[in-house]
Amino acid sequence: MYKILVEGGHRLSGEVRVSGAKNAALPILAAGLLAPGRSVFENVPDLKDVKTFLKVLEHLGASCSFQDHAASVDAACCEPNEAPYDLVRTMRASVLVLGPLVARCGRARVSLPGGCAIGARPIDLHLKGLEALGAKVSLAHGYVEVTAGRLAGADIYLDMPTVTGTENLMMAAALAKGVTTLRNAAREPEIAALADVLNLMGARVSGAGTAVVTVEGAETLSPARYTVIPDRIETGTYMAAAALTRGDVTLTAARPDHLDAVISKMRSAGVGIETAGDSIRVKGPERIRSVDLTTAPHPGFPTDMQAQFMVMMCVADGNSVMNETIFENRFIHVSELRRLGADITVTGNTAVVRGVPRLLGAPVMASDLRASASLILAGLVASGVTEVHRVYHLDRGYEAIEKKLTALGAVISRVWED
Ligand code: UD1
Fold it and tell me: Which of 155, 216, 281, 380 has a 20 to 30 A CA-CA distance from 337?
């Protein structure tokens, strides 16, 4: 298993290019199952999750390739095979094959994703929506099985604006007969990106990015070629790195308009941010100011940036109250940050962070993807060396993170430990 060593105290400066968005790439790759023929997606990030997802698609009969950030999915034939536990357990997003598979092949069998470190994360809304489109859903032996004839458009209200749930239903509706309306849909930029792909394939999707998404299904869809949008969470993570190290970093190939809430909070915390076209220049202040924060579905502050922002608050001047409203167990990084000297109290879904002048490097354990990122960030400002263990989580979502941080002047290395 690898661990990452970070020597703190180095100011970051220079330019870093943002990779394609993992959370946009996964549903878009799944959409490849909808059309007979070869779809090609560019700017796909080179990540463990992407490779696992391509394995799931191959298991389902698609021929896939991945080279130089271009992924192709050739779903000439699509087999209603099952997405097995061994693949699904490592990546909950595998559930994204349910919608396209049942719409195209009339049957899908996917291992239930089960709980994960950050909460129970059920898929009941995905399943309720598929039933509304005419599918039959059954659960047995740890698998969910969905069968259907041709799906039929429906009016669906989502109790919560679930991101992958909205995506699954958009993909299923793209091959359904008639019009589907999704109300209280998720509004994340990744939803709009998927809508662009479905439209390129021949479906008619409108309203993506708002709370009401309408999908006019087509009898068949055609393969598409599409370039994946930049990763807004990776962008925000490097912004936090610059802010924490009093750095001066320019992010390129970014989408500042996807980061309104993050940019606004960072500015309130005293971070200098200038945006121009697809670049964001971030200048860290002498001392970060504490600000309060509540996570919310887009366009609110993303839960996927909560852990990274918490690190900023750990060394800020003053106290910060942080509320996590999306996942019930998303403060696992707190105990590790405390090992570095952070002063944090958690009650329910609220964390009170009292800023301290400095953190001190220590061995810490990564527990999930964004928690891992927060520990690397903490290591960048902690005095001495921080050893981050179990970094495989990090490789699921951050492309070439040591390389990118090293190019900015960080002292970071990956070493093998038995
Ligand atoms: C996606 C993102 C993840 C991000 C999350 C919230 C991908 C691949 N992952 O995850 O990085 O942290 O959005 O922005 O895009 N819920 C239900 N029933 C359901 C579905 C969800 O109760 O059927 C609840 C969840 O438990 C959670 C909330 O809805 O409390 C939001 O979850 P959801 O938006 O579905 O997250 P994901 O799509 O899994």
Answer: 281
